[in-house]
Amino acid sequence: MKNDILLIQVDQLYSRALKAYGGYSVTPVIDELCSRGVLFENCFCQFPLCQPSRASLWSGMYPHKTDVLSNGRKWKVQNFGTRYKTLGEIFREAGYKAVHFGKCHDAGTLRGFDCAPEGEIAVQSEHAEFPYNMDTYEDRDTCEKACHFLNEWNFSQPLLMAVDFVNPHNICGWVGANKGLPADVPLPQNTPLMPALKEDGFACSIPAQKHSEYPEFSELQELPELPDNFDFDDIGNRAVSIRYVCCSHVRQAQAALWTKHTFRRYLAAYRHYLSLVDREIGRVLHTLDKRGKLNDTVVLFFSDHGDNLTARGSVTKQVNMYEECIQVPLAVCGPGIFQRTEKIGGLACLLDIAPTLCDIAGLSCPDNFDGISLYDSIYKGTKPDRPYAACQWHTEWGYTVSPARMIRTETHKYIHYAEDDFEELYDLVCDPHEKKNQAKNPAYTADLKRMRSLFEKYLSVTNDPYRSLEYKADPRWRSHPCGYRNHKGPAAPEV
């Protein structure tokens, strides 16, 4: 009998935010999932943005083949077409019940799944510091619909079930709520970060200029420390789209004047939103366990893309292909999958999920799939047979078109930007936090040549039309001194 398969996806999770990857998050459910089977050390998305990444995941193809190249209405309403079979169609034709709950953002690539309509459940925020927004409403609705289905399903046929949560994506709304320079740092009475303030009778806020008068203020804040690459001096040696990302990405403009304290609050908020979705995941797994099916189900846990998490002073996701934005968790557990104490090395991609699922189910993979199967890695513990991982960027919301491509090996990363024919090269062994672009360093000539060769190979093998793409940028942007802290004027989509 074929095993049931449960896919759990969250939105905007950099793998290294999890304890399983050395992070600081409080996510007992996800931690247990990661410990029950195999965990991939280096898994990457194919586009650090929701819609393009998800369309690539469900279709098994690179974004340039799906032609889903951004978020926004143009791509949201796009019909993926019938030229290729989707993952849902493949499984449905093989006798599976294919169901999907939660965030879609798929541009038609979820065809074949029975997709529950996205909904909201209005709930009260437990903490004023971390207000609920639509993302949390959707997660609660997603959880309830998924649990209801599992309670009613008779398991009369094999099941492929996808549950798509949105958090920790709430962090995007948190940035907007804290845009600009915070004159006052809110200290709500019920926030868990400042438990002593209420007892000591402090007011609900302390003006920023008064912080120095209260030495105990910082001590009461149980805030995460900023990463090693928060500060760096290499901004002038980055692509122009990176130097002026504040102009093309509204969230970075909103954070332009933040203090280090606010960036630490950002990390705390991210941790909080991640803990919220952890609880919802737990409820789904608990329901499956009550039906006596958890131990018989293959479970995959992953995310569509990462989050900058204050690296290089950056927030949310945006036009960059640094590790924080493109590296995502991938954990697999279930019958026949042995529990490993060490993560599986090598390189994996979200593209690999579709062919892997086909192999798990004993189904033939269509020729249009661009990924490789991770079956042997999951069941035998071998490293994926992948010489490099590739990632793409085109545009966000259509305001600025800045095509770029990334090639990553186990030791190096190469990024090429169409604008100015600009290159970035990082030695991930000596510089894992990508502080120094070595593309112009003579000491790295051989590495640059090798990575260029892999890049050209990728373009040829995938028929990526990258060399023919054009770029465009609003002339009002990129007119101030480079660096987000020097931002002036409007930012997309504020125009």
The CATH homologous superfamily of one domain? Alkaline Phosphatase, subunit A
CATH architecture tag of one domain: 3-Layer(aba) Sandwich
* Low-confidence sequence ranges: 183-221
Total number of beta strands: 16
Could you tell me the strand content as a percent range?
Answer: 15-25%
Observed structural traits:
495 residues; 16 strands; single chain; seven-stranded mixed sheet; 17 helices; Alkaline Phosphatase, subunit A; alpha/beta; globular
Please, could you describe this protein's structure?
With 495 residues, this protein is α/β, with parallel strands linked by helices. It has helices at residues 28-36, 50-59, 63-66, 73-76, 87-93, 134-152, 171-177, 195-199, 216-220, 240-243, 245-248, 250-254, 260-290, 323-326, 353-361, 375-380, 445-462; strands at residues 4-10, 38-39, 43-44, 97-102, 114-115, 159-164, 184-186, 205-207, 297-303, 327-328, 330-333, 348-349, 389-396, 400-408, 412-417, 422-427. Among the domains are: 4-176 and 263-386, Alkaline Phosphatase, subunit A, CATH 3.40.720.10; 182-223, no CATH class. Strands 2-11-9-1-6-4-5 form a seven-stranded mixed sheet, with helices on both faces. Helix 6 packs parallel to helix 13. The chain is globular and about 65 Å long. The N and C termini lie far apart (57 Å).
